[in-house]
Design brief:
By secondary structure, the protein is α/β, with parallel strands linked by helices. Helices cover 35% and strands 14% of the residues. GO terms for molecular function: glycosyltransferase activity. Keywords: Glycoprotein, Glycosyltransferase, Membrane, Transferase.
Length: 393
């Protein structure tokens, strides 16, 4: 009996040890699997920002122009007027008058409109816009990366002409505040670009997922309406790396929709990033070009900053009507000599080669009636507004 008891005890101990070994092995396996999953999750998070297919080369190489462009040109340097429009140009009659007073060798015109739209005698009053639309245009939506993609397409097309040395981005509601000669000399007198650019401390539009491709220290905000020298235009047109990051992580927050109920709370936690207010400014800061900029726009915009308006839909540019485009109002804009940037406590005095100059050469948003008044009162040239009242289109 004693022998049987000893054997039973030994077997029981062996069985107990086996169970412990099995449990220990299972525990080690669980820990190993958990650690593996954590590592894989971390690597996936790191690679989530951009895959190799979405970011074809590192930022360090994006500064190298990948286009083969002719560098030599004869004659005068040109100003390229780049119109970013929805469809047609409602103020073409004003711009036609503006270009009539210029030497055709001093400017060129490019228009990004909706795909398939053609500028000809049936769609525009001015021959300066005939066939000036891009053939590779895209569908553009406000607040999306397609807006900056369209800007890049305009710059790319204009860079194909080596004589183009200044590149002015304009909307379909922009007007010139001076004649061509004044604007041309103003732009050619400086080797700098005009890019409204300031630190974005309050809006929270920077998405941490952009790092390390776009460090927060280089994040900038400013007006979409830029004027670039050729060197900077090439950087913007040729960039793919930073644009890819913007396309993925800089997106407009969806508007509130009562039908979605509690889901609205989740939607409103997303970063509200407007690409065209950040892209060029941030890209040039990343290339350390800020010392080569006049950090201001030369296109005036008047904003509705009322508390009521902010609560409902945010700040929006005011549209100038016929009554708003008189000599007094235009002189007020022309007399502006400095711009204050609250986020940087910076007053930007408007200078051109150390000379104090008017801040703005263009203004927006102007209605057709306001543009007619500018012409009638000789801001651009003497003009009979009645001459287009019954004309087409």
């Amino acid at each position: 009996m004693k022998k049987k008891s000893a054997a039973a005890i030994a077997m029981a101990r062996t069985a107990g040890m086996s169970v412990k070994n099995v449990l220990w092995l299972w525990w080690k396996l669980v820990v190993l699997v958990s650690l593996t999953l954590c590592v894989l999750a971390f690597l996936k998070l790191q690679s989530y920002s951009l895959s190799d297919s979405e970011l074809p080369y590192s930022f360090s190489t994006s500064s190298i122009s990948r286009r083969s462009r002719p560098l030599d040109y004869s004659g005068n340097p040109k100003v390229a007027f780049l119109f970013l429009v929805r469809r047609n140009l409602p103020l073409d009659f004003l711009w036609g008058s503006f270009f009539e007073n210029a030497d055709t060798g001093n400017f060129s015109v490019y228009v990004h409109s909706e795909p398939g739209f053609v500028f000809d005698e049936s769609t525009t009053r001015s021959s300066f816009f005939y066939d000036r639309q891009l053939t590779n245009s895209i569908k553009v939506a406000w607040g999306e990366s397609s807006m900056i993609q369209a800007e890049k397409l305009l710059l790319g097309s204009a860079l194909d002409d080596p004589a183009n040395q200044r590149f002015v981005l304009l909307s379909d509601s922009c007007v010139p505040l001076y004649n061509f000669s004044f604007i041309y000399n103003y732009l050619m007198a400086t080797p700098r670009s005009f890019v409204d650019s300031f630190l974005d401390k309050k809006d929270g539009r920077y998405n941490p997922k952009m790092s390390p491709y776009i460090p927060m220290s280089k994040w900038r905000k400013g007006s979409q309406w830029i004027t670039l020298i050729r060197k900077h235009a090439e950087v913007v047109a040729d960039d793919d790396a930073v644009f890819s990051v913007f396309k993925m992580f800089c997106k407009r927050r969806p508007p509130l929709e009562p039908s979605k109920g509690k889901k609205n709370m989740k939607l409103q936690k997303q970063h509200n990033c407007i690409p065209d207010e950040h892209y060029v400014q941030t890209l040039l800061a990343m290339h350390d070009f800020e010392g080569e900029l006049e950090r201001r726009t030369i296109t005036y915009t008047e904003w509705n900053e009322s508390v009521t308006n902010m609560e409902k839909k945010g700040w929006h540019p005011i549209t100038f009507s016929y009554a708003d485009a008189g000599p007094v109002q235009i002189k007020r804009i022309k007399d502006i000599r400095n711009v204050y940037y609250e986020s940087e406590y910076r007053t930007e005095w408007c200078r051109n080669n150390s000379t104090l100059v008017p801040c703005f050469l263009f203004a927006r948003k102007f209605s057709r009636g306001a543009a007619m008044r500018l012409l009638s009162e000789g801001v651009v040239s003497q003009f009979d507004a009645a001459s287009i009242m019954n004309s087409t289109p």
